[in-house]
Amino acid sequence: NLTNAALMARRRAALPAGLGQAHEVFVDRAENAEVWDVEGRRLIDFAGGIAVLNTGHRHPALVEAVKAQLDRVTHTCFQVLAYEPYVELAERLNTMAPGAFAKKSFFMTTGAEAVENAVKVARAYTKRSAVIAFGGGFHGRTMMGMALTGKVVPYKVGFGPFPAEVYHAKFPCALHGVSTADAMASIEALFKYDVEPSRVAAIILEPVQGEGGFYEAPIDFVKALRELCDRHGILLIADEVQTGAGRTGRWLACESWFEQAGVAPDIITMAKSLGGGFPLSAIIGRAEVMDAPAPGGLGGTYSGNPLACAAALAVIETFEKESLLARSQAVGERLKAGLKQIAERHSAIGDIRGPGAMIAIELFTDGDLARPDADRTRRIVAEALRRGLILLSCGVHANVIRILVPLTASDAVLDEGLAVLSDCFDATA
Ligand code: PMP
Question: How much is the ipTM here?
């Protein structure tokens, strides 16, 4: 008989300590927004495998598509022998990305690899070396991913030196007193102190910072970045690994940049919910930019695996069939309404935010914005698990509770999760 405790003991003995784990739970099976652990206990999943399960655990359409692919071919290496689902997926993603220009796409396996490849493409096209990223940003755990990530603990500690030519500017965040003007001034400061703009290949940002705390890039900032990039021949990269595939109420969060300000990124990275639980990441970009690397420069043995491509096509189809973009908005509104009710009773909640269903609450001692409350945040996440709800925290100050529940979750499950969260605030007060 397997128990969580026994498996955790085996895990600790066999696996390195650096591999974190949010909850001491081993899963046996999962269905949509619910999982059952090895002891038979049911848990509501508000974590969604860190933004991977916008279509829920094991959506029937995905399971069917992957099974069908499994019975045909599972691997050839796309650079040896090609298969249609890869090309079809690229065609679909090219038409779904904003910007009135021709686009091309290719696939990798992880979000970090997508980021690595976005930088490779940007360097090949611009023939420049430097990349500007932002404080609080997260871009993965590979060497360049870590270099671009703007948070030292725990992601970068002990792992340097990192690739050169990466510079960090401030990310605007009104809640913590950083304006768009401050953020733009920090880029001008980089140009003055560290790197001339003509050496900068790209500026990379998350439309909504994910690991950094669910802070949305203000539209005036995005507009200013685009203007800056155009002025200096710099490419703009949107890292949509966490925001993409419908989380923000649009297929891509940067669609709202285009609608509001006519801004389109030159390159977009996607992963996570694109494959709906199968490992797949995408790099989508301006055709002439994407064609810059020489043949053989891009790819990987497993990248764009047929099973993952079949899953991604099923994800796109499911979004259409089940109107999941509208559902994303509705889920977000329902969550926000429930969180507002909790906030009426608990001054610790200093902010409730997020586009679409990319929802977060930020906790402060006595609601004082100068005192982020990481301890209460940690206690609520732990209490939630005891009461059957899987939550995740995030944020530069570790005081943000983020919700990445499947968009396919029923209203009943959403309300059940909210009720547990409410009880957790009472229990930790
Ligand atoms: N970019 C962003 C914005 C992310 O949120 C993440 C993962 N949290 C990554 C890159 C890295 O993705 P992966 O873990 O699949 O390498």
Answer: 0.99
